[in-house]
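Reproducibility note. Readers wishing to regenerate the assembly model reported in the main text can use the exact inputs given here. Chain order matters: entities are listed in the order in which they were concatenated for prediction.
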Amino acid sequence: MSTSTVSAATPSKHPFERRVEEVKPSKTLKRSPRCTDLKNLPNRDLNAIIMDYFISEGYPDAARMLAKEANIKPTADEHSISERVAIRNAIHCGDIQSAIERINELNPQILDSDQTLHFSLLNLQLIELIKPVITSQSADPTPALDFATSQLAPRVSVNREFLEDLERTMSLLIFPLESLQPQLARLLQPSLRIEVASKVNEAILQMQGKRREAKIKDLVRLRAWAENKARESKKDIPAKLTLGLDGDKDHRREHEDGLDHDDDDDDERHGNGADIMVH
Amino acid sequence: MARAPPPAALADLRAASSIQSQIVALRRLKNDLIGHDQRKEACIKHGAVNLLVELLNGALRAGGKRRRVDVNGGKNATGRERRSSVDERWSHEDELRLQCTIVVGSLAQGGLAYVTPLLAGGIVQPLLSALSPRETPATLVVATLRTLLACADAVSMDIQFLDPVTTTLADQVFSKPDVGALSEILAQTSTTDIVQEQQVLVYQLIACACQGLDHPNALLRAGALDLMAAQLAASIMADGYPGLGTDSKNLTDLPPPPPKSHVSHILRAISALTTTDYRCARFVYNPSISSIFPASKLQSSTSSTAVYGQLFNSSLQGSGPETLDRLLPQLSTAFGKPETSFSKAFPALGSFASSSEYSRAASLFAESAAAKSSSPTRTTTQEFGTQLVTWLLYKARTETGLDRLSAVWQLTLIIKAKDKIFPDSPPGESGPSRNRDRILTYLLVPLIVRMIEEANNETKNNPIVEPQFRHLSPLRIKELAMSALAQLVEDSKGLQQAAVDAGAIKLLCQILKRTFDPIPDRRGKMWTPYSTDTNMEMDEETDQSKSTQLGSRGLSPEVVHALRCRAAAMEALAQIGQVDDNIRKTIIESGIIACVVDSLTAYQETPVGTVAESLSNADALDGKKGNPIVVIVAACNLARALSRSVNILRTSLIDGGLAKPIYLLLKHPNMSVKHGAVNVLCNLLLSFSPMRDELIQGGCIKILCEHAHSADNDLQMMSLWALKHLVYQASPDTKISCLDELGAGWLIQTLTGEMRDPFSSFTRATASQGSTPIGMGTPNAAGEQVDLLNAADDPTMDVDASSTSGEDEPEDDAMADSITSLNLPRYLPNPPAVQRPTNLQHRARLKLIKRDEQNAAVMAWKHEVRIQEQALDFLRNLISDPQSEQDKMIDHVLATLDAQRLFDILLSKLRPSSPQPAPQRDQPRQPHGKHPALTTPGSAARFAASATYSPAYSTHRHPPPSTASILSQITTPPDLLVSTIFLIVHIANGRASQRQQLLSQTPLMSATLPLFSHPDRRIRTALCWLAHNLVWLDSNSTDDQISARQRARELRNLGVEEKVRLALGDEHRDVVERARGVVDSIEKLLGPEDGHAGGQRSPRDDRGLLAGRVGVGLGGPGARAWER
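Running the prediction on these inputs yields the following structure tokens for the assembly.
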């Protein structure tokens, strides 16, 4: 696990990189005035960040293993992680109804107070109801229509964005599956589930008074921001700065996409990884 | 189309026979309801509320049989163990209650419209029974707290007070015995997630719903404040700041530190409780807080300033003790020419209720310290007496958003109360207040202004906020930061200027104007597939009780925000423009007068509950259609502040049409609105106000007199104050009608004030009640005798009686010693050793503050002093005009009030009214030993401005006051003496016969003699004026000369002349000048060349000027109304 965070040293030493090498051991992320054991400091901080990531993103098994390996105390209640995992898995599987019920069980106020999130889930549920209709000719569209009428339609009069979303979803029923526009086709992709699941996860964390996201996401953004700033002010830094994760791909993405898509990609990548780790 | 069917789950729930099937149905109902407002509506209309109440009560009865004691008890229990123990005992009843509670919570999330029927159906009480963590599983406690918070949150959006039922929520939560459950939750020391969630919910609940006086007091009594203070202390300790106290045993008692994210919630909850001086002092002196922030570390010195420099310089060199001050930017202390505006600012303007004993000490220090000023040094926040202030400043400067706001808010509350809490804090070379101001000027005020600005910019771009973030949003920060600014700069000219320099006026005016922009209602009505024909519903509905009808939806959050901003901005502007005319001018030039006048409109009279329904969002923002009470009160305050400027009063305010809305507000049913309106009226009725005639013709005399007769102390006082201004230089007809309307009987009764009469009730009571020293009955306006002694024993007095922290206060007698020792350094110019105050001293100080704030007898006494002062000034203004009718008016007043009775009353004011045993009473004794330190130039006025108890003069000699003994040592406050004497002066200003009549009141004249040596210069001056008027010669006719000579002789016989001659050596020129005039006159009358007395010195003019003082005095006596 620690492999993912070790930066790869490049052979051609740019002055900047030499400086990086110099400061590396003392790269502390947490100001902890009472820390006496300086030797273990970087490792401990890195472990803490990774642990934080596992907990926020909901990988209880991995968190347990890391805790064992690195000899640190898990900072969160395992129970609370597994609740979130169950909800996430339900959404990933398309079982939205059970996800909603689980969310209500966990904290009934989440969906009551966040109408946008609730609408996203209901919309996803509607898509799941529509899917069988458009894939097989024989399926009855009535449940989907009823659901749209009773659950989604009342809300769209309140919020214009909801209206657009619902219209888009309903148009799935109209257009043939083969010639869908990209924005409609996107609704049928698993990525939508992952996106919603991630939002739900953030909402739950926020309601529990925790950070919405793993700290490492902030750090990645901070790094990109700093790099951009440095480039803007023409500082002498290497033309290419990699995250050291999987080489050029990361590098390209960071520069071309900026940060908006960072999360999605991250999620996707780690989502895959999660499957390996969880199962 | 069919009507919306009742939710199936509700029907199932009704039909369910077993507890298991009920639970299943409830689960279904829950999932049906969450996030579905339409289903919630249908549910409530089909009687869900009553059903839920029944179910909760039923489960309570069933579950109550087996009490869970100690579910959360074991301190060492880990989360898992506890959960399993709870799960083992988790019964069906618990599950039923949990699901019910969640359903209620979901309904409450729907907002005000849904909470109203819930409250009307009585949902709160059954919910509250599931709060105590000793008896209830933790999960259920969390659910209950969430539900309560959802209700409280919805209720907090009701700024129009649509339905009285909404106020009942907090009353039920914050009262015995349920308030105890909240403390139990806070007292848990477990660090498991679920316990911490409970605690953070309690903090939020307190911050959201705790209001008024009763709620905080109930929480204080239950120990909640101490518990939260300990949590805060633990958190600060865990952060490891430099210079924290470490040696106290209290530190080991600290609870485990709460998570960082809790700190701002804790601070906000504490802020909700520390809204009065006493409770704020309780927080600062809390053992946990005071042990980590030990109060002033001064060891000992002859000059405290020098030590200061030393202490700080050494810490700069790194060898001294580390202090939190290193975390803040260093400012050099103010030195050089004393700027009066600065040094006066803090203590001087406090109303007499607060400033008396405390500021006195501070300024004594200031003067002695200023005399031996040493080298310039740096300010330290120890100026404030506790490093808690430093820590909060540091927090405010380093955090952002809500964390910053909560620190700023708490800081503001402490600073407001600091003159009472830290009277001992050592002064800098220019006095403590000046350096305190300096720190706040540079470190805090600009910060708050910037906070408002930032929040304003953020909200401008993105005004919509998801409800779950409402409390964290820039919207809330904007509202609260403006209120904080208002509170902070109140009574401090320096800080007001600092706010102006930071650009506050422009910003606030801009925000104020923007609140009148229309906001579209984003809460469109949901589309429904069913018919919404209301008639049909009515037909089918069988149960039409309040619990089955949706309440009013209230205003949308955006509109509520706009209205709150309107109120807060005006409040802040009012405080910024409190003193300085130029600032007021700048405010007016920003063009906000129309906003103010519009904000003075009240809602149309309609049956309760229909106000908001009839108001669309756009209407609600249009001030002309009405404003909530908070806005009206703020607008009154701003109008009052602006009307202090004569210039503005005669131009912008009359142009803006201020008089009419204010007049209408006089009849508003809400008391705080009445207060606000009468306060503005005080200024609008001044003799030079162009609105005066309009208001008098409108009939405001009658209304003001009615208000003066009301039972509300403040309203009584303010109305009399307004009437005082009204009669000044008014036509005789107006004066007479005003006097008639007010009623001679009422005036006499007010002036008499049982308490002030040493010969009546007091002695009687002492005689009859034996050991009980006071039998105070004071008539209220309705003429009822209010037994103040018993009132004093009412709940207000036992605030600490059941405190869990062992703070129970000892008996009064036992406190005596500690108060003495506490006071000792305050009244010695050079304290030999300022030691770290002990807990005992803290408690003594708390006692003092509490007495000032809560003791019914003390408050009644203060009120009586204030109202008598106003009544005397009212009479004085009736007879003060130097017109031809003046003597007739004097006759009228004397006849109406019964001259002899009036003179008796005046005599009772002048006499030292100490209810000592009879023998002593007969010997006129010196009322106050003339204390040299108190009469130094410049300081006397400050002291004199505050009524005080005699112990303040001589505390180190007399035993300190206990509640009972305070009243036995009352001497007449200087203000009251001044008013009394000036009334006599004006009676002597009539015709010769009236002077003669006055002189024939030998006891009255004798009573003035000892007052010639009163420490208050104004009193000595007034007495000289009296003598001056008595020997005045109307004309040079022989008759007049004979009678004048006669009067002069009487003055000599009475001993007045001797006293006046002594006054020739007075340290005040004013007194000396007056005395010289009198001596000259007497010599002219009685001396060799009598017969040529007369007006080279044109004393008539002097007199005219003098007469004007009461009424005109915008900066004089009259000004205090606006500074309150």
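We highlight two features of this model. The radius of gyration of chain A is 22 Å. Residues 1-10, 26-39, 247-279 of chain A have pLDDT under 50 and may be disordered.
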